[in-house]
Amino acid sequence: MLEALISSKTRIKLLLRLFLNPEAKAYLRGLADEFGESTNSVRLELNRFEEAGMLSSEHEGNKKVFKANSSYPLFTEIRKILLKHTGLQEIVERVIEELGDLNQVYLTGDLAMGRQSDIVSLILVGDPDRNYLLELIGRAEELVGKKIQYLVYSREEAKSLDLDEEKNLLLWHE
Fold first, then answer.
1. Coil, strand or helix: which one is 26?
2. CA atoms of 32 and 30, how far apart (whole Å)
3. Contact between residue 66 and residue 59 where contact means Cβ atoms under 8 Å apart
4. DSSP label of 72
5. Ramachandran area for residue 80 (φ above 0: left; ψ -120 to 50: alpha; else beta)
6. Which residues lie closer than 8 Å to 47 by C-beta, 6 or more apart?
7. Per mean pLDDT, which range of 72-81, 92-101, 104-113 is the poorest?
8. Which region among 58-62, 90-94, 117-121, 170-174 has the lowest average model confidence (pLDDT)?
9. Cα distances (Å, whole numbers) of residue 162 to 75, 112, 137, 156
10. 102/155 Cα distance (integer angstroms)
11. Are 76 and 146 in contact (CB under 8 A)?
12. Element at 43 (helix H, strand E)
């Protein structure tokens, strides 16, 4: 879907990498290695996004580190498009709607870091109906064409977890 709107594959990868998890930071060489692209093509797109105000940057040592600019006027809309593109929005809405006692849903793994993946990894906090959860996960996998793995933690267990916002994306909370 995005490929029809945006012709640059590097641009799409950068949007996914930086806008799905706005707390994630990345630097030029790391992105080029991750994407298997030349540093010049990644630099060109990073500069365009930064000039447009979509990204902010800061220096950490000798590296220029980029991050999505959450105050960019179209930030929320771009993020919604990316969530729809990955199928995450449908999964979250469907699961939360009918599960019962649920407090938080986190996205973890590659998708939380803005990388492409055929696996959606979720952490659910609360006490959902586990039989119904299995049924919903099966239907959601068919809907989005991705494998969904999940962990369920009680509120007390979740307090002891390190849910670092750079590696885990809070998708929903009550």
1. strand
2. 6
3. no
4. S
5. alpha
6. none
7. 92-101
8. 90-94
9. 27, 15, 25, 13
10. 9
11. no
12. helix 39-52
Angle, alpha carbons 130-21-50 (nearest 5°): 165
Residues 30 and 94 in one domain: no
Number of neighbours of residue 6 by Cβ within 10 angstroms = 12
Residue 81 lies in a domain: no
Shared domain check, 169 and 95: yes
Structure tokens at 96: 């939360």
Tell me: pLDDT of 57 over 90.
yes
Q: What is the largest CA-CA distance in the chain?
A: 51
**Separation of alpha carbons 119 and 156, rounded Å:** 27
- 91 shares a domain with 72: no
Amino acid at 158: A
Q: Which amino acid, 40? A: N
Residue 91's φ and ψ, nearest 5 degrees, are: -60, -50
Contact between 96 and 129 (Cβ < 8 Å): no
- Give the pLDDT band of residue 1 (cuts 50, 70, 90): low
Q: Are strands 169-173 and 100-108 parallel, antiparallel or unpaired?
A: antiparallel
User: 135: domain range?
Assistant: 87-173
In three-state form (DSSP H/G/I as H, E/B as E, the rest C), the secondary structure along 117-137 is CCEEEEEEEEEECHHHHHHHH
In the chain, the number of structural domains is 2
pLDDT at 3 over 80: no
